Structure formats: C-alpha cells, structure tokens
Amino acid sequence: MTAPLLQLQDLSVSYGPVEAVHQVRLDVNEGEIVTVIGPNGAGKTTLLCAAMGLLPATGSITLAGERIARPSVEAMVARGVALVPEKRELFGEMSVEDNLLLGGFSRWRKGQRDQAQRMEEVFGIFPRLRERRAQLASTLSGGERQMLAIGRALMARPRLLMLDEPSLGLAPLIVREVLQVVSSLRQHGVSVLLVEQNARAALRVADRAYVLEMGAVALNGAAADLLNDRRIIDTYLGMG
Ligand code: ATP
Description:
Blueprint: E1 6-15, E2 18-28, E3 33-37, H1 44-51, E4 58-63, E5 66-67, H2 73-78, E6 81-84, H3 96-103, H4 115-125, H5 127-131, H6 142-154, E7 160-164, H7 172-184, E8 191-196, H8 199-205, E9 208-213, E10 216-222, H9 223-227, H10 230-237
Parallel strand pairs: 3-8, 3-9, 6-7, 7-8
Antiparallel strand pairs: 1-2, 1-4, 4-5, 9-10
The protein binds adenosine-5'-triphosphate.
C-alpha cells in the first residue's frame, strides 16, 4: 500500500490555553478529494492552517511517507502543497494574468517549465479566466475571483491543494460550478483537502469526509454515506 499523500496524526492546536483542534487524525490519499465539514468555530480553518505549517501544532504531519520534522509553509510548499485561504488574497489592481504569474513563483518542481505553458493549462481548467485574462482582479465576480485564487495556487503545480471555504459568499449555482472544477482537479493529478461549511455541496464532490465538532473528529467516512447519514442530515443538511 502506498503511503497517504497527507497524513495528520494526533494533530492538536492551541491558542494560548484554549485548544482549538484536538488530536485529529486525517488522511488524504493520492487522487482523493477529502472534505472537512463542521459548524462555525469547529476548528476547520485552524486545522488547515496547522496542516500547512502556518500554526504551531503537536502531533505529526507526514507527506507521502515523509514525516515533516519542522512544519512550515516553506517545507510544505517545497513538497508540493498549496493553500487557498478563505480571504482569497488576490491583487485587485493587477490583471488576472499577473495574479496567475505571481502564483507560479514558488514552483516546487525542479526543471521548471515555462510559466506561459502552465498558464495555458490553468486556462484549460478555468476557461473563464482565459476570457478575462486582461481584466483587473477587483472587477471579477465572486465566483471568478475564487477561480482565480484556485488558478493562482495551481500555477505552482501542487500535488495537494488545500482550500478554505471556497463557497463563502457565492450564490448556490456558482458554488456548484466552483466545486465541480475542484472535483475535476484529480484528473490533473491534484489531490484536494477541502474545508467547507456548506456540507451538502462539499459532500457531493468529495470522496471522503471528516466531521469536525469542537476541534475533534466526530465522524468520518465515505462522502456518499455521510450524505445519507441521519446525524449528518439532521445536523448539517436541514430538510432539503
Ligand atoms: P469558521 O467556519 O467560522 O471559520 P472554523 O471551523 O474554521 O470556523 P476556526 O476559525 O478554526 O473554526 O476556530 C476554532 C476556534 O479557535 C474558535 O473557537 C475560534 O474562536 C478560535 N480561534 C481561531 N483563531 C484564533 C486566534 N487567532 N486566537 C484565539 N482563538 C482563535
């Protein structure tokens, strides 16, 4: 059996005396879309930031069998991990194209290929960005901005993409469009760890899911099973 692409073991994160993430065990296998769902304040963002080396944590982070001794953003990026933060953090006064070029800056692979070629590949994934390549990022719609944020992270050719609430602030139809693209990323050799408060949308595109409650994994399993799980339906999916 090959080692998981990402393996978190007993990961705990505290803000001072308050433990926000408690002993989380989570795997993402090659080619998988894994989602972490849970209510506001459950610790999803904290977990993602710790997994990216942005926050100190106890426990271990292993990438493709290699235990990361001192997790840091640099260590994670160097091993092909990219994060799209909740705030998207685009450069509004720069064009779509220039925002993408900035993302290509930290490519982890040696023998870097041409950025223009990578941009074409990203445009292949997000044709809408190609149409708007010269437009300022600040003038894009919410969905387009999210696509640009994901596209920018993809410029670095990550093998694992971590996404923090890509559906935030988007209309339902656009959420579906963005998440469809996210689920198609496995065809491009990218595995995904998707943090979402929109449980239904996330479970529809993910292979497996973890439910985080008060910092701990309350439940995990195949996304399709969780979509039909009474506890999940009652707590997170409402009547629909
Ligand atoms: P949301 O979906 O609302 O972003 P979340 O599941 O991502 O929620 P976190 O943002 O990770 O949850 O927050 C987890 C807990 O840690 C919350 O109780 C929050 O108040 C607390 N917390 C988050 N950031 C900090 C911080 N910088 N300092 C202190 N406490 C924090």
